[in-house]
Amino acid sequence: MGFRNHTHRETSPRLCGYTWKAAPSNSSTMLAKTSNGLPFKPLISCVKRRLRPPRPLVAHPSLRIHSTRPFSVQPILRSREARADSPRRFTYHVAASFSAKHKTFDPTGDVFLFDPYNRIQTEKKRPKSKRPASGQDAFFISRVGDTNAVAFGIADGVGGWEDSGVDPADFSHSFCDYMASAAYEHRLDAGESPLTARSLMQRGYDAVCKDRTIHAGGSTAAIAIASEHGKLDVANLGDSGFVHLRLNAVHSYSEPQTHAFNTPYQLSVVPASMLARAAAFGGAQLCDYPKDADVTQHTLKHGDVLVFASDGVWDNLFNQDVLHIASRFMIRHGAWRAGDGGILVGDDLRPYTQPQDPSRWRAALQSALALEITMAAKLASTSRRVDGPFAKEVQKYYPQENWHGGKIDDICVIVVIVSEDGGSEATKSKQ
After folding, report:
1. What integer best gives the mean pLDDT of the chain?
2. Alpha-carbon dihedral sign for residues 343, 94, 193, 178
3. Second CATH level (architecture) for the domain 51-430
């Protein structure tokens, strides 16, 4: 299967991560076209595309990246014999998988399993040589201070900055590194306010803006903090996002943030010279900030599955596609099972999420599921026959374009499997 070139290239001035472009005066449709033929609305065209139809309403201490060293994850859970009136305790089994566009997916190496008791990264920002092979997409997973809460997120670098000689990965990967460090170093006993997803995003963005090695760039962001008491706080800015799966259904999901058609929100660092040049053309600022992110709170239950991903997934897979993959895996491994009243969750998920043989850590349920979703998105992105969300949206707004198949892009996925102390019995007693 051949790869298509979806890179957006042009010479018009850029402002805050977006490109402004006037439509030809003789255009009967009043649409400006890029070099690949995809039309954009007049005046504004974004250096990063995001198209997706509405989804159906159905219901540190580790930052070890790209490591194959086996380890044993010790459970964060308190005793399963906890008193009935004690606070509910949750633990989160987290893994990530990724694949850079135009590169072959390697399921033996393009995966990361989170170990909450092992932190080998001591610097706030990794050198390029230690980054995962995820292209312009980046991710982080970190324990929050000395608690059992976990912070994690996805950042999708804006590829259009390449036209200005900027490596988009510098922004997105540094952004994630700074958020991971901020989460790990957070201490309530030191007088700090409780950490939220939006405040963590703000800390990461502030650090990037102060980093003199990052002269320009931008990214979207989908950031979350899962507390040890089963509360999930999410801040989503742009077109990365998540789905929350429960008992064989899509329980909730994020909506992409866009200024206009094909113009997603994104954090940006813009040189003063570029701002001045844009102002000379009469442009208006379209910068976005963490305060603009959509913030939502969710209550988690034993057996829930969270999937956070960049638009390399959401442009090629529908929510129901992700649900189908997750359901198949959870049922096949016994974490979910069919009962008289529908799908049930196993009492103890640790046998599936913590393999006894350290050499088989990639077989952990969260790792296998992250790998499967990445592979499915990779295959869909190169397809020319099956129309994904991106193709459906192009056909809806511009039927004359004859766009079919997938959309090649970097892919990054984080999978979280939620486990409660006491399992299903504890969940039932609280309902």
Report:
1. 79
2. negative
3. 4-Layer Sandwich (3.60)
